[in-house]
C-alpha cells in the first residue's frame, strides 16, 4: 500500500482520480473547492508530504554535491535555496531536486518516484568522501503567499523564485506535525499548486519531460537574470556539463517547454504523454494538464521550435502556445557569434 497523508482525512479532501504521470499519490488533489482554492487571499498551505526528502551531510558534502549536480554548491551559506539536476553523460535529465542548505546539511527533495534512484546514485558515488546520505522522513509542505513567522519545528524554510506575486515558500516539518501545520493555515490541494507551477513554467520530471530532455528545453531551470534556479552556467565540471555549455554558447535546444491553452469546449481532456501534432505531423509531447481558475484548461508541453506558432492538436483537443510562456532571454550565444565572425558573416 502506498503513502497516505493524514491530511487526506480533512473535510472535503479528495485524491486525484485514476492513474497519472504526476506525482500526486497520497495527498489531497483538492479539499472540495478545486478552483476556489487557487484564489489565494491569505497564506495557504499545500500538502506535498509525499515527496522524498534526503539529507546529505559531512565535511565533504559541499564539494561532493558540487561535483555531481548542475548547481554550484561548494561555497553556499546556511539558508541557501535553489534546485539542481543530475544529468547523464549526454546532458539528459535524470533527477530534478529542490535544494536547501541549513546548519551544514543539504536537503534534497524529489518526487516520490525518484526517492530510491537518487539515494542509490548518491550513495554509490561517495567512495572515500566524508559524506552521509540519509532519508529523513520529513514532510514537505508549501505555503503560497507570505507565511510570516513559522514555529512548526521545521528543518528548513525555502523561498524559491519564479512564482510571481503569489510567492512560494517550502517548509520541511517532522511528519508528526502535519496536523499542527494544517491548523496554522487554510488548506489548498495539489491541484492549486499544479496550476501555479504550470503558470511558472516549472516542469515535473516524469509528467513534463522525457528521456531525451536536456536542461535548456525548460528555461525555468536555468540560472539567468540573477535568479538561482537549477543550472549554474559558470561552475566546474560535472557529468553532462558539455551539453549544457554547448547549447548555451552555440545554439538553442530543438524543443521548448511552453504553456498551452487548451480548448475548454472539447468533450474529453488530453493526458500527459499525448503526442502533439500540427498538420498531421508530430511536433511535441503534452505534459501536465490542469484547470486554471481564470484561464480554463492549460498545460505544459515540449514543442519543436518550428511549431511554436502553429495550431496544435493534443489527442483531438485544439491547443495553442501561450506567447507569454516563451522565454525573453536565452543567453547571448557568444560561441555562435564567434563562429559567425570567423566565417565572415558579421
From TrEMBL:
What keywords appear on the UniProt entry?
Transit peptide
Record keyword Transit peptide present: yes
**Start and end residues of each stretch annotated as Disordered:** 327-346
Against InterPro entries, the record matches this protein to: CAF17_C, TrmE/GcvT-like, YgfZ/GCV_T_CS, YgfZ/GcvT
Name by which UniProt lists this protein: Global regulator
Q: Which NCBIfam families match?
A: ygfZ_signature
Name the Pfam families on file: Beta-barrel_CAF17_C (PF25455)
Coiled-coil features, chain-numbered ranges = none
Is the Magnesium keyword given for this protein? no
Q: Where is the composition biased (Basic and acidic residues)?
A: 330-346
Amino acid at each position: 500500500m502506498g503513502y497516505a497523508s493524514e491530511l487526506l482525512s480533512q473535510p472535503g479532501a479528495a485524491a486525484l482520480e485514476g492513474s497519472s504521470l504526476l506525482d500526486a499519490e497520497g495527498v489531497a488533489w483538492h479539499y472540495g473547492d478545486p478552483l476556489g482554492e487557487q484564489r489565494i487571499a491569505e497564506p495557504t498551505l499545500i500538502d506535498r508530504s509525499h515527496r522524498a526528502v534526503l539529507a546529505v551531510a559531512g565535511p565533504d558534502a559541499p564539494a561532493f554535491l558540487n561535483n555531481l549536480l548542475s548547481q554550484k554548491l561548494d561555497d553556499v551559506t546556511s539558508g541557501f535555496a535553489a534546485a539542481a539536476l543530475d544529468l547523464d553523460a549526454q546532458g539528459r535529465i535524470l533527477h530534478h531536486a529542490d535544494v536547501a542548505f541549513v546548519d551544514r546539511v543539504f536537503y534534497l527533495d524529489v518526487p516520490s518516484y525518484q526517492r530510491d534512484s537518487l539515494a542509490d546514485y548518491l550513495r554509490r558515488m561517495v567512495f572515500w568522501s566524508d559524506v552521509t546520505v540519509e532519508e529523513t522522513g520529513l514532510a514537505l509542505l508549501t505555503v503560497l503567499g507570505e507565511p510570516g513567522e513559522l514555529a512548526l519545528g521545521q528543518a528548513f524554510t525555502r523561498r524559491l523564485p519564479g512564482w510571481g506575486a503569489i510567492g512560494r515558500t517550502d517548509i520541511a516539518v517532522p511528519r508528526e506535525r502535519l496536523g499542527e501545520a494544517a491548523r496554522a493555515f487554510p488548506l489548498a490541494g495539489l491541484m492549486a499548486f499544479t496550476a501555479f507551477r504550470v503558470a511558472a513554467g516549472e516542469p515535473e520530471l516524469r509528467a513534463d519531460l522525457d528521456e531525451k530532455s536536456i536542461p535548456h528545453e525548460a528555461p525555468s531551470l536555468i540560472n539567468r537574470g540573477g535568479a538561482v534556479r537549477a543550472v549554474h552556467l559558470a561552475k566546474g565540471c560535472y557529468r553532462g556539463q558539455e551539453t549544457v555549455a554547448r547549447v548555451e554558447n552555440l545554439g538553442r535546444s530543438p524543443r521548448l517547454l511552453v504553456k498551452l491553452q487548451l480548448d475548454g469546449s472539447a468533450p474529453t481532456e488530453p493526458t500527459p504523454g499525448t503526442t502533439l501534432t500540427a498538420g498531421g505531423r508530430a511536433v511535441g509531447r503534452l505534459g501536465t494538464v490542469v484547470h486554471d481558475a481564470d484561464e480554463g484548461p492549460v498545460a505544459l508541453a515540449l514543442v519543436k521550435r518550428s511549431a511554436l506558432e502553429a495550431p496544435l492538436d493534443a489527442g483531438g483537443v485544439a491547443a495553442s502556445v501561450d506567447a507569454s510562456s516563451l522565454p525573453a532571454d536565452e543567453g547571448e550565444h557568444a560561441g555562435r557569434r564567434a563562429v559567425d565572425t570567423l566565417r565572415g558573416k558579421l
